[in-house]
Amino acid sequence: MMEKDQNKTSHAILSIENIKVQFGKRCILKDVNIQVNPGEFIGLIGPNGVGKSTLLKVILGLLAPTAGNVCIGGKTARKGNRSIGYVPQKLYLDPQIPLRGRDLVALGLDGHRWGISLHAKERKKRVDEMLEAVDASRFADSPVGLLSGGEQQRLLIAQALLTEPKLLLLDEPLSNLDIKSAYEVVQLVSRIGHEKRVAVILVAHDMNPLLGVMDRVLYLADGKAAIGTVDDVFCSDVLSKLYGYPVEVLHVNGRIMVVGGNDSGMNGFPLESNCCDSGAES
Ligand SMILES: Nc1ncnc2c1ncn2[C@@H]1O[C@H](COP(=O)(O)OP(=O)(O)OP(=O)(O)O)[C@@H](O)[C@H]1O
Ligand SMILES: [Mg+2]
Questions:
Q1: 23 lines ligand 1 (CB under 6 A)
Q2: Which of 100, 128, 145, 254 has the smallest C-beta neighbourhood within 10 Å, fewest atoms?
Q3: Quick one: 68 and 201 in the same domain?
Q4: Is residue 280 part of a domain?
């Protein structure tokens, strides 16, 4: 089995055991195993349509796995779990929307969602603290629709952290960001994860912006998973087994690129996103 689980402990905040996810006859994920420890930073990487968002939905309890178990803090995954903060993949904020940055963050406390009822003063205090934590105070009173992608991303992370979750799931938070903003968001998430002991699972196509901060990488390909350190997972034999055909792992200027091809290797095509479009120095 290719899954490697070096850090297995009974104190895991997230435990995924042998899950399988099938839609009709199509198997999206199989034999996925991972134990995530408090404060650990996991990069969830893989090509389009491989099942990254689906795996997050299973962790969130929005989708029941066809087989296997998922536990958060020792309890079976269920919808509306307050110990999970989530930033979804797609979010379009209308430039006309009459909502300030701080209002967007405050939605994380709204009663219908979490059953929390706080006094206005306490609400404001919590929102202010979180705006400060993600370095968003300076644009907190601007209309959200007018903010940049990086600024909006900070607000969404603040919103997801408002209930002090133990696990933060971020679905492609870097996809619309330039290199500098992507780097800043990664650093921010990593810092908050360490300070607050929040485990992070961050979904990305390209792991290069995460190289300096990831503790482990969970790589999905063709329904299967490999987990381990970057060096464990990003080697030709592990990824070739995962894909079921020869794959080369190239190191270019401190960045990693995965290409598929024949045994000679160099007629490849990128399987990971390439070296040019994103990634920050780390
Ligand atoms: N409810 C569903 N019913 C049937 N098929 C589904 C369902 N949800 C997702 N899928 C399919 O499962 C596959 C994995 O989808 P998923 O959204 O998890 O991919 P992803 O890795 O997040 O891709 P991307 O990088 O494009 O966001 C896709 O082919 C998708 O069409
Ligand atoms: Mg997705």
A1: yes
A2: 254
A3: yes
A4: no
Ligand 1 lined by 62 (C-beta under 6 Å): no
d(CA 61, CA 63): 5
Residue whose token pair is 């995460």: 210
Which ligand ends up closest to the CA of 44? 1
- Domain holding 108, by residue range, is 93-162
Decide: 53 in ligand 1 pocket, CB within 6 A. Answer: yes
Q: Do 72 and 171 fall into the same domain?
A: yes
Residue whose C-alpha is closest to residue 218's, from 1, 23, 2, 38: 2
Q: Are residues 207 and 106 in the same domain?
A: no
Q: What is the pLDDT of residues 184-242, one digit of tens each?
A: 889 999 999 999 999 999 999 888 889 989 999 999 988 889 999 999 998 899 888 88
Burial class (CB in 10 A: 0-12, 13-18, 19+), 121: exposed
Among left, alpha and beta (phi > 0; psi -120 to 50; other), residue 112 is alpha
Give distance in angstroms: CA of 89 to centre of ligand 2: 6
